[in-house]
Amino acid sequence: MLKDFTSESSIFVIMNSSIFKTNFFNSIQTKVTFQAPSNIALIKYWGKHGEQLPKNPSLSFTLSSCISKTVLDIIPISKGTDFSFDFYFEGKSKPEFHSKVKVFFKRILPYCPWIANHHITINSQNSFPHSSGIASSASAMAALASCLVAVEELSDDYADQKASFLARLGSGSASRSINGPITVWGATDSVEESSDFFAVPLSESDYNPIFNTYCDAILLIDQGQKKVSSTQGHQLMENHPFGVARFKQAFQNMEKLIKILEEGDLDAFITIVETEALTLHALMMTGSPNYILMHSNTIEVIQNVWNFRQETKLPVCFTLDAGANVHLLYPQKDAVQIEDWIDYKLKAFCQEGTIIKDKVGRGAKKV
Ligand code: DP6
């Protein structure tokens, strides 16, 4: 069912956001460290409205090795006219990130008013190379949001919801990195308690355990290639000629995928995941302006995946994010055969032969 964006739904937005407002105004001096992983969407978030609200629900596998680790040093100060913070990435001061952090702080101020009377030093690092083309905003914003929420010492479930809520205000996909192995962001009739405001983990009793064993081999086809920025990408969906059909399709694909995950139907899983990936790129190609983000080697890999699957019947499939890299997804039970083929056949299509082997994981954790 498509959502309507009427004034009634705006009232709903305000009411739902307000549950994350806090009475925590304490003056504190503390240090807190969290690590949070990246995630790979199976149903894609592409199109947003209002303050970081999705036009359709999305679902992802949370990863485990591609992580950001963030340390916050927090000290009380008297309230100034602007936010007081420093930002270091991999040990180096990065003033170029200041405007992004400022926008984030401004958005979260109603929910974390204490940040206005503290100086916050942020030190962040990634486990994956910065130039790899792997989106770091999801893991970085999830780690930062987790640190901020930890300061307020909330109960576990509520803390996770608030961390996801804040992470969303930094980057939509980051809302899905707080929990794992499978999370859903965006209200859908297919998932109880799903919300546009924060992501929820799928309960393990609601899907086949094979999905807890899924591996993700990330083929770095074009490291450092500039992806379409998420701002440009989401904007492309405003007045996109296929926008209405796309949002409807995403709701339908979510409904189908939830059933498929429960049944453990791997053939049906492959169909939905690959359709979502190709749809994302089709939307970029048919928007205004047009973008082609697949590299010729991206297409070579896709063709190899289709041939290999036809020959071997092994359940390996691909998905793509907004760039040339390819994520190959497969269950652990078939990893030896599939990874032999990846190393033998697909390495040649990767820049400097780089492949990151990751698997599904459980989300953000305190370090
Ligand atoms: C293609 O979460 O990066 O990866 O909310 O503007 O930060 P912002 O967008 P972002 O968009 C992610 C788009 C995607 C699909 C997905 O992860 O669902």
Per-chain topology:
Layout (H helix, E strand, L loop, with lengths): L6 H12 L11 E14 L4 E2 L3 E2 L3 E19 L7 E6 L2 E2 L4 H11 L9 E9 L10 H15 L4 H15 L11 E4 L13 E3 L12 E6 L10 H7 L6 H21 L2 H20 L10 H17 L4 E4 L5 E6 L3 H12 L8 E5 L5 E2 L1
Parallel strand pairs: 5-7
Antiparallel strand pairs: 1-4, 1-14, 2-3, 4-7, 4-8, 5-6, 8-9, 10-12, 10-13, 11-12
The site of ligand DP6 has 17 residues, from helix 5.
Distance between the termini: 41 Å
How would you describe the shape?
globular
Rg (C-alpha, Å): 20 Å
List how many beta strands DSSP finds: 14
Q: Number of helical runs?
A: 9
Beta fraction: 15-25%
The percentage helix is 25-40%
Q: SSE order in H/E notation?
A: HEEEEEEHEHHEEEHHHHEEHEE
**Low-confidence regions:** 1-10
Overall average pLDDT: 92
Which small molecules are bound? ligand DP6
Give a short summary of the structure.
The protein is of the alpha+beta class. The chain has helices at residues 7-18, 98-108, 137-151, 156-170, 230-236, 243-263, 266-285, 296-312, 335-346, and strands at 30-43, 48-49, 53-54, 58-76, 84-89, 92-93, 118-126, 182-185, 199-201, 214-219, 317-320, 326-331, 355-359, 365-366. Helix content is 35%, strand content 23%.
